[in-house]
Design a protein that fits this description.
The chain is α+β, with helices and mostly antiparallel strands. About 30% of the residues lie in helices and about 20% in strands.
């Protein structure tokens, strides 16, 4: 962890569990201006780790017979996803990211639309949207209006946050509760998580680190985005949690105590999905599968402005890690605009490998 800090991350903190023992640690600072040290128990915006919570909530409703996993989304939300799309796209496709519905992010943040062509990108819309309150339907409409990324149900998915906001609207339709409230009552509280929740405003309510966004060197020095209205992320990426809570959640989920064993088996049926950074990941229903030399791991990673999180649990439950950093998108571009490797990459790979597999971490783990 010290190596990650020395490589350029202001603060990094984690919890690792193995063989009935728990290790918590932190390195660096929570605030570069004051030098306030980072602590392992801090609250953190965990980004797309939220998707596993949302997927678990949906699977609970599948178990109750209120949602059909292979039913068309138009059966439930005909006005939100109308016409042929509503008839062809199933709930499973939304969870698998095989709906063909593109991400709304380039349209909600228009100055980023040319990404990954960094010379044509500006971060102006990050500041424009800091206190903007988005409605889920508004963001979903942006995704539905954009050119499709593929045919519904294709063999390869394309990661899209739009799917996860639609799933939030589905939860509200079938439960009669706001999706965040349902997830809080039936997933977060069921798991006994004491420091996890959807933010009620732009501020994190409790001890936390400042969150520094670099956006591939376009923001220099990195800017603090810890105060931000997370309505742009919603049921896809808005949760605040701690590393202790994340490890507890995934331990219980993979032990069949949040959803039943048959639902968990569905969540663990993976397909190749193209992530937002262009890499290919093995993705189930709200779960990543990561292969390491010491076993198969399940979990999710997440990034929002200034915050990065990785939470992985070995398939047998015997080893867990949750790691948070308060700087993100640190890679600077070359002359062509392509982000280049950074010492932070190697330091984080070493940390993940040591946390996942123990001992010497060289060549252990591939960052998903």
């Amino acid at each position: 962890m010290d190596a990650v800090h020395r490589a350029g991350v202001p603060g990094v903190f984690a919890e690792v569990r193995a063989g009935g023992r728990t290790w918590r640690g932190a390195s660096g600072v929570a605030d570069v201006a004051t030098g306030r040290p980072v602590r392992p128990d801090l609250l953190h915006r965990v980004g797309s780790v939220t998707k596993t919570f949302t997927a678990a909530a949906v699977m609970q409703q599948v178990e109750r017979g209120r949602i059909g996993l292979d039913a068309p989304i138009g059966d439930y939300l005909p006005e939100l996803v109308p016409g042929e799309r509503g008839r062809r796209i199933t709930v499973r496709m939304l969870l698998h990211n095989t709906s063909g519905i593109p991400d709304y992010l380039p349209y909600a943040f228009p100055s980023l639309r040319a990404f990954p062509s960094l010379p044509d990108v500006s971060t102006e819309s990050l500041d424009d949207n800091r206190f903007r309150r988005f409605r889920p339907a508004e963001l979903i409409a942006m995704g539905l209006a954009a050119p499709p990324t593929g045919e519904p149900g294709g063999p390869t998915g394309v990661y899209s946050n739009t799917n996860w906001l639609i799933l939030g609207e589905l939860l509200e339709e079938v439960t009669g509760l706001p999706a965040e409230e349902y997830i809080t009552r039936h997933v977060i509280e069921r798991a006994g998580l004491r420091h996890t929740g959807f933010p009620k405003g732009p501020r994190i309510d409790g001890p936390h680190a400042r969150l520094y966004e670099s956006f591939y060197g376009l923001i220099d020095p990195p800017r603090d985005y810890s105060v931000y209205d997370m309505s742009w992320a919603g049921t896809g990426a808005a949760l605040v949690s701690t590393m202790e809570d994340l490890n507890r959640f995934y331990r219980l989920l993979l032990d069949g105590r949040i959803v039943g064993r048959s639902s968990l088996a569905e969540m663990q049926r993976t397909i190749p999905v193209r992530a937002l950074d262009g890499s290919m990941i093995q993705y189930g229903l709200g779960l990543h599968r990561v292969e390491a030399p010491c076993g198969t791991f399940w979990g999710h990673d997440g990034t929002v402005w200034g915050a990065g999180t990785m939470s992985l649990t070995r398939a047998d439950g015997g080893r867990q890690m949750s790691v948070a950093v308060n700087l993100i998108r640190w890679n600077r571009p070359d002359a062509s605009g392509k982000p280049q490797p950074h010492p932070i990459d190697g330091a984080l790979k070493e940390l993940y490998g040591r946390a996942m597999c123990g001992g010497t971490a060289t060549d252990h783990a591939v960052v998903p």
